[in-house]
Amino acid sequence: GTILGIETSCDETAAALVRRSSDGSAEILSNVVLSQISEHAAFGGVVPEIAARAHVEALDGIVRAALEDAGATLDDVDAVAATVGPGLVGGLLVGAMTGKAIAAARGLPFVAVNHLEGHALSPRLSDGIAYPYLLLLVSGGHSQILLVRGLGDYERWGTTIDDALGEAFDKTAKLLSLPHPGGPNVEKMAASGDPKRFSLPRPMKGEARLDFSFSGLKTALRLVAEANAPLSDGDVADLCAAFQLAAAETVADRVRRALARFRDEFPGLANPVLGVAGGVGANQAIRAALLAECMAAGARLVAPPLVLCSDNGAMIAYAGLERLEAGLTDPLDAAVRSRWPLDEKSAPLVGHGR
Ligand code: ATP
Ligand code: MG
Ligand code: FE
């Protein structure tokens, strides 16, 4: 079957077509992502009202482009999936309404997808890995280590007690007057910087629990920046490099512990896998640190291509496809949810905008 996936939970308007091939693999027929970055740039962050309006204006065209790129029409589509949470409610409503309208008009099943499930399953979409696996989700709103036991069966082993890692990158960029979004710009600056000139803390390093904390790192960086003001371009590059190294080592430390725990829980598993998801997974320094940890632990690192790390429609289509195949479709009055933890067992509340 072929499924249309729609993603509008934050500042990307995205649609994609994904098909289950006869050999059992998932095939991305198209994956169209329109970023609203320029619309929000002047405000240094995502403005919910601007995002919702931009989704309204763009989504029809993006869905059309996804069909066109796939060389398909709606006649070729067997089901429609849309992100219904978590995220900004205005954007979620636009995507959910559009998805439901297409499903209703064509008499197709509708699948209400959790955005985080889209991220969590993306290593299966890109590499076809088997359950169970360990997942590092590092995005703009989340920093989590999850045990992915199966579809809809997630155990959260660690989470951030303050900022998400992507948020920390974005705040660091803002502090250093780099353009939004911060992650890619911090990485770019870090490339020419000396990571050892300034020393920053490694929060939570060595602690047994698998949680993250990044606000102390952010504060330490601010103090160093203030002490060295005014900052030259070289100073900014060195600060970015120091921050990125601290972030990478912090994540690596958590992942080392998580891999050990994973091995304890699944001693018989021949090929333990660590999957990476979320926009920060695009960071090459973090990928390198994760690869080193995986090699040391005899595990395989599955880091999907960059377009599948940040927000996209293909991951939503794919999560929808797995749910559809498991018989998990949703009514057309499925509600959108601004908050929806992945390890919550219950299905989305129906009919009540909670
Ligand atoms: P969530 O999925 O938690 O709701 P989101 O959808 O906004 O959040 P993503 O689109 O997955 O998050 O990722 C965006 C985040 O990834 C931003 O914080 C951005 O700065 C960060 N990011 C993107 N590229 C890089 C990079 N190369 N290095 C570090 N961070 C990056
Ligand atoms: Mg985004
Ligand atoms: Fe996301």
Protein architecture, described:
- Its EC number is 2.3.1.234.
- It is an enzyme of class 2 (transferase).
- InterPro entries: ATPase_NBD, Gcp-like_dom, KAE1/TsaD, TsaD.
- With 354 residues, this protein is α/β, with parallel strands linked by helices.
- The chain has a 5-stranded mixed sheet, sandwiched between helices. Strands 8-7-6-9-10 form a 5-stranded mixed sheet, sandwiched between helices.
- A hairpin with a 4-residue loop joins β1 and β2.
- α5 packs antiparallel against α8.
- It binds adenosine-5'-triphosphate, magnesium ion (MG) and fe (iii) ion.
- The site of adenosine-5'-triphosphate has 23 residues, from α4, α5 and α6.
Fill in the keyword field for this structure.
five-stranded mixed sheet, binds adenosine-5'-triphosphate, binds fe (iii) ion
